[in-house]
Amino acid sequence: MSDSNSHRWNRIFRKDGRTVIFAMDHAATFGLMPGLEKPGEVIAKVQAGGADAILTTFGIVKKFSEQIGDMSIILRLDGGTTKLAQSPAAMSKVYNVYDALRLGAEAVGVMGMPGSQFESETLPYLSKIISQGLEWNMPVMAEMLPAGFEDPAKYWTPENIGHACRIGSEMGVDFIKTTYSGDPETWKNIISQIYTPIVVLGGSKSKEPVD
Questions:
Q1: Residue spans per domain, the chain
Q2: Are the C-beta atoms of 68 and 47 separated by less than 8 Å?
Q3: Per-block mean pLDDT, blocks of 10 residues, the chain (211 long)
Q4: E strand residue ranges, the chain
Q5: Alpha-carbon gap, residue 211 to 202, rounded angstroms
Q6: What superfamily would CATH give domain 3-200?
Q7: Of the candidates 177, 192, 94, which has an alpha carbon nearest to the alpha carbon of residue 140?
Q8: What is the DSSP letter of 109?
């Protein structure tokens, strides 16, 4: 790992290898969302709470850099589809590593989604971003979710989660974001076969913080 890559990495991950990443990229797909009416106020609260990094959009980084403060930035590079679309379509690469460098990001984030009906479109652009990231010492995070969000109840099984994560490792991503397998034993089995650091997505809202 080069010095510049290592510096960016250490801005996201603490010395113990852990990190808390605040995901705020949803409105690029869903538009108006309860709780995100005033992005600056939300970001300021999360920043004050001690989050290590924020996964977010080009527009958020441009407009709310003051609120982001010393949180590291993981710039979402893909998109191009919204809930207003007349029919389902594949996401695409809408920004690149050069854009992330111009905005001062520490890493970039994209979807993986092996098993999705659109994998033949999404996985190739992921590989191009990985190659470009290596060229410019920019860490790449991929959301390796089996079949994406097409039918989580059906496809997000421990076995499929493991397959998706291993595929991400083989493609060369620097770290993986995925869903928890549901229990310690299956999770341990997945971790034992993945040679890439993994961060776990937060999941749905719960009344119980421990959950």
A1: 3-200
A2: yes
A3: 74 95 95 95 95 97 95 96 90 96 97 94 96 97 95 96 98 97 96 97 75 65
A4: 21-24, 53-56, 72-76, 78-79, 92-93, 107-111, 140-143, 175-178, 198-200
A5: 10
A6: Aldolase class I (3.20.20.70)
A7: 177
A8: E
Burial code (b: 16+ CB inside 10 Å, e: under 16) for 35-60 equals ebeebeebbbebbeeebbbbbbbbeb
- Do β-strands 140-143 and 107-111 pair in parallel, antiparallel, or remain unpaired? parallel
Rg (CA), the chain: 16
Task: Tally Cβ neighbours within 10 Å of residue 131.
Answer: 12
Query: How is residue 154 written in tokens?
Result: 């059906």
Structure tokens, 134: 């290596």
What b/e sequence results for 161-177 when a residue is b if at least 16 CB atoms lie within 10 Å of its CB, and e otherwise? bbbbbbbbbebebbbbb
Three-point CA angle 120, 122, 128, nearest 5° = 105
